Fold:
Amino acid sequence: MIDFSLSEEQQLIQKMARDFAQSEILPHAADFDRSGDYPEEIVRKAFQADLVYGVIPEQYGGGGLDGLDQLLIAEELSAACAGIGSCIAINSLAAIPLIYFGSEKQKESLLSMICTEEKKMALCVTEPGAGSDVSSISSTAKKIGAKYILNGNKTFITNGGVADYYIVFASIDRALGHKGITAFWVPRDLPGVSVGKKEDKMGQRAANTTDVIFDQVEIPETDRIGEEGQGFKIIMQTFNHSRPGVGASAVGVARSAMEYALKYASEREQFGLPILMHQAVMFMLADMAKDIEAGRLLAWQAAWKGSQGLDNSKEAAIAKVFCGDMVMRVTTDAVQVLGGYGYIKDYPVEKLMRDAKVFQIYEGTAQIQRLLIGRALMKDLF
Ligand SMILES: Cc1cc2nc3c(=O)[nH]c(=O)nc-3n(C[C@H](O)[C@H](O)[C@H](O)COP(=O)(O)OP(=O)(O)OC[C@H]3O[C@@H](n4cnc5c(N)ncnc54)[C@H](O)[C@@H]3O)c2cc1C
Structure:
């Protein structure tokens, strides 16, 4: 039985997120886009509104939301500003390794602490020499007695400069390839941890994206997450959980672009008619509407499958790549619908187009998602 209606509780979550996004985020979106500053005060309010750690089970102080609930929030926040939305969403994403692979003791102490003390997190996978090829990361964690000595440079880390805690992936033995990758909980205030260059980005500019450097950082064995060598699996499972949410964020951006373009097209007149009445323009809007609906349903399906405890890796990749490509098309066409005005910063659609691009890049590029889908198809064959 398939039921596409939202429950009463889901409608409330959606409304709460929409109200927050429209009143607390949207009015400041253009300013943060211009400055590239981190929206500290908005994130603080998001904590108070319980929008940050929805993914964490209630028993550890989180929202206890399931995958679909989080997608409703992601769409609304990103519809107001994807950069500010990602400042909020990245915390939940970074907590996923602990939720799935942390020991009961770690969950009770660490998850509860970040919720009650409103601590921020970041997920450190990417390195200057290891992006798509996660298995080639060169950060190392050498075991000495009951400690690991962590060394490495992480790059493009969302929340890198503002997080209190990092989830860091490093190799205990590079000769083991992906089987050597291991996950660690790393407080930012440990000696040897430092924040490097902050990126000046094309879009999603409110998000704080920096290098994070680990130099002879001592990590107690008790702060390893999961087993030695389980890191690659942890990263993949984390992405299976988060990619539908990235898809939903892309849907939010696309929805905003379509709504603005539709309103504009109904008001702007050329050749004696609202431009919406010219079929070429109307068809661009029709394509936007169909692609947004399709993207939302793919994201919901992938999240639903994951929340049933089923393998959703193929569906998560499909949702992520479809929504990433879709939001790029929709925002580009929204600029087209506005003509010259679309290209001007006084109008919001050029920001939406800049914000859209990174959906095809982070959390696995569009090409890598296709690779994953292709591999899943082959697995079904042989
Ligand atoms: C704004 C932003 C925020 C980010 N946040 C985080 C974060 O919080 N934590 C984190 O760890 N990382 C983060 N990243 C990093 C992001 O996940 C990587 O940029 C991404 O995985 C791609 O890696 P890369 O940039 O090194 O590109 P590369 O891997 O060098 O890829 C370059 C190009 O080659 C293509 N390519 C590579 N390999 C293949 C292949 N086998 N087949 C086909 N094509 C291929 C890619 O698709 C791409 O088009 C962020 C990046 C950005 C831009």
